[in-house]
Each structure stands twice: as C-alpha cells, then as structure tokens.
Design goal:
- It is a single chain.
- This protein has about 400 residues and is mostly helical.
- The chain is globular.
- The longest helix has about 35 residues, at about 115-150.
- It has 16 helices and two strands.
- The protein starts with 10 loop residues before the first helix and ends in an 8-residue tail after the last helix.
- It has one domain: Orthogonal Bundle (ABC transporter involved in vitamin B12 uptake, BtuC).
- The protein has a two-stranded antiparallel ribbon with strand order 1-2.
Length: about 400
C-alpha cells in the first residue's frame, strides 16, 4: 500500500524510479547492462534457452524417446506372446528358452522337437511378418496422407491393393502362373499391383504433374473397377472352395507364411522407411501445400511422383504376402500424430512401431478367437480399429477438425 505522500507523484515517474519494476518489465530477449561509461548496452540472450526440468518443452523433448522405447519393449513382448499363444499354447518360459537356443545355435532336446517346430518354423515367421506388414502399412499411410493432403487417405486409396487382388484371384481360381508353384500367388499379386500403379499414374498425370485431387480420384475409381473384376472372377470360379479361399485372402491372411516370405518384405520396408525418414522435412513442406513447399525449395510434382512409386512398391510387396489388410494405414498414422504431433520426423519413428505391435496382436486374435478356425485380419482390424479411432477422434476434437 502506498503512503499519502507518494500520491502526488505521477504514476509513470514512480514506476520508472523502481529498478525492480523496470527489470520485471524488460523483455527476456533484450537486457541492459551498464558499461564503464555508465551508458546501457543491449545484451541479447541466446535464441533458444535450454528447457527447464519439468517444463512443457522438456516433456515434449523426452516424450518421443520414451514412447519409442516403450513401443520397442512392447513389440518384443508382443512377438514372444504371439509365438507362445495360439490354438496350441506353449509356456512363455519354454518359448523364450527355445528362441534363445535357436538364436545361439544351441542343441534342442529330442522331446522338444515338436514344440520347437511350432515355435520356430510355424509361428515365428508369421509373427515377424505381421510386424513387418504392420510397420510398412503404417509408414506408407503417413506418406500417402501427406502426398494427397487428405486425412482419409491410406495405402489402398491408390488402387494398388485392388490390382493385387485381381492377380491373386486369377491364380487361386484359374491356376494362372501355376508353373511358379508356391510363389505363384505372391508373384501374381505383385504384378497386379504393379499394373494398377502404372495405369493409375498414366491416367492421373497431367502436364502440370500429379495433383492430389486427380491422384486420389483416379485411384478410388480404379479401385472400384479392379474390385468389380475380382468379384466377377470369384462368382465365375469353377470351384467353390477356391472361391472361399480367395475371399479369405482378399480380407488379409498370414496363413502359410514361411521364412522365405520375410526377406523381400523386410528389405523393401527398410529401404522405404529409410527414404521416408530422410525425406521427413520435405513431407512437412508438402503437407502444407504446393506453394509453401515450392517456397521452401521442394519440387512438389517430382516429390509426389517419388512418393507414389514408393507407396506402390511397398504396398505391392506387402499385399502380395499378406493380402489386403485394411485400416492399419489409416488409423495408425493418426494415432501417432495424436501422441507426438504432426511433425513427420516424429510420426515416422512412432507409427511403424505402433503398426507392428497392432498387427501382431491382431494376427494373434485372428488365430485364437475362433480356434481352430482362423478369421481374416481385415475383420479384426476393423473390429478393433473403428471404435478406437472414433474414441480418439472424440477426445481430440480440436486436433481432428473440431472447434
């Protein structure tokens, strides 16, 4: 409280005579320090101060490493659980012991030969491929949504999976490429995806290059066309059992996976993910619009063509070994953005890990819910993904288009 004798002084003079008040009102970016002559000089603080422990900035910087570490541990635990659990369950301790002996080249007792075959030759390749497919679809989903600037885009919106379905249906129903034996289905699916990619590109391109609207409209239209061809092949199939198997594969399936299915898919995923991580800043620029990307030194047309080829290659390879597993490439990118923001440098680290964990547990549910029968992966992904995505969207209205 002020004394009565101070009330006659102007407020501005009283405030200017208080050095404490003056220091409090001085901006942090410009501080004054007396020189030897007594004149003040400006001293600028560094552009970015180190975050204080416990502040929001510090939590943001530590959130990504923490989430990546937790998801990595969760992925390893999920792989072990996916190998141990199933119609014929194997104790977790025995599963870990057999995996360790196999990795280190140890000796497996004769009485454990049957269990070892289930763990190492039947379930482990399937679980690892589920992780690879989940990670790949999530990463390509991130790239596709940035490429077409559409939150509803996923790897299948470009018509690639529908083209692969035509090739796979031709093999399963009519014996096309039967000379390739076990590799006929995956080869035909990849060739169908490649043909769909070329067709969509030729139709969507213009003199100005690939525009997001033309690309997504062309891909959607061609997807319906390929789906109609697949349906016609199924209904005209001479064998009812073959038609049922084809429909099962079209909804996603990892049945019959062997170690030979892993190398190509893993290499393609690694190359595609490395390219996307190196292009994360360009993805940020592209997501803000072509004009903004151009001002930042990014050629939108050329970069969009590169992303289109990458999405087609990765999706074609993954669909060839797993079928059309829907919803993963749509939901997981949004889930990653809700946790770490829209920066692609963060999203591309988190989304593949989350996708791998998600599809490992999805495949486990597909094998166990209706055992000994197996459910298509697409049924489980939709049953889990739809309510979870709607819940996330409801809780984060401001992030996903709310007011």
């Amino acid at each position: 409280m002020r004394h009565h004798s101070d009330s006659s002084a102007p407020p501005s003079t009283a405030e200017s005579d208080s050095p404490e008040d003056t220091a409090d009102r001085t901006p942090l970016s410009v501080l004054t320090a007396p020189t030897e002559a007594g004149n003040p000089t400006e001293r600028e603080t560094p552009a970015e101060d180190p975050p204080r422990p416990g502040t929001g900035e510090d939590r943001e910087r530590t959130r990504l490493p923490l989430l990546c570490s937790l998801l990595t541990v969760l992925l390893l635990a999920s792989v072990v659980c996916g190998v141990a659990l199933g119609p014929t369950s194997v104790p977790l301790g025995k599963t870990v012991e057999l995996l360790w002996q196999a990795l280190r080249g140890g000796v497996i007792p004769a009485e454990d030969a049957g269990v070892y075959y289930i763990v190492w030759d039947v379930r482990l390749p399937r679980v690892l491929l589920a992780a690879v497919v989940g990670a790949g679809l999530s990463a390509v989903g991130v790239a596709t949504q940035a490429m077409v600037r559409n939150a509803l885009a996923d790897p299948f919106v470009l018509g690639i999976s529908s083209g692969a379905s035509v090739g796979a249906s031709a093999v399963a129903l009519y014996g096309v490429l039967g000379a390739l034996g076990l590799y006929a289905l995956s080869t035909a699916a990849f060739l169908g995806a490649l043909a769909a990619t070329v067709l969509v590109y030729l139709i969507a391109r213009t003199a100005e290059g690939l525009t997001p609207l033309r690309l997504i409209l062309t891909g959607t239209a061609m997807s319906y066309g390929f789906s109609a061809v697949t349906t016609l092949l199924v209904f005209q199939a001479p064998n009812g059992n073959a038609a049922k198997s084809t429909m099962f594969w079209l909804l996603g399936s990892l049945g019959g996976v062997t170690w030979n299915s892993l190398p190509v898919a893993t290499v393609v995923l690694a190359c595609g993910l490395c390219y996307l991580l190196l292009s994360a800043e360009r993805l940020n620029a592209l997501a803000m619009g072509d004009e903004t990307a151009t001002t930042l030194g990014v050629d939108p047309g050329r970069f969009r063509r590169e992303l289109f080829v990458l999405a087609a290659a990765v999706t074609g390879v993954l669909v060839a070994v797993s079928g059309a597993v829907g919803f993963v490439g749509l939901m997981l990118p949004h889930l990653a953005r809700l946790m770490v923001g829209a920066d692609h440098r963060r999203v591309l680290l988190l989304a593949p890990l989350a996708g791998a964990v998600f599809l490992v547990w999805t495949d486990l549910l597909a094998r166990t819910v209706a055992a000994p029968e197996q459910l298509p992966l697409g049924v489980i992904t939709a049953a889990i993904g739809v309510p979870c995505f709607l819940l996330l969207m409801h809780r984060r209205k401001a992030t996903l288009g709310g007011r």
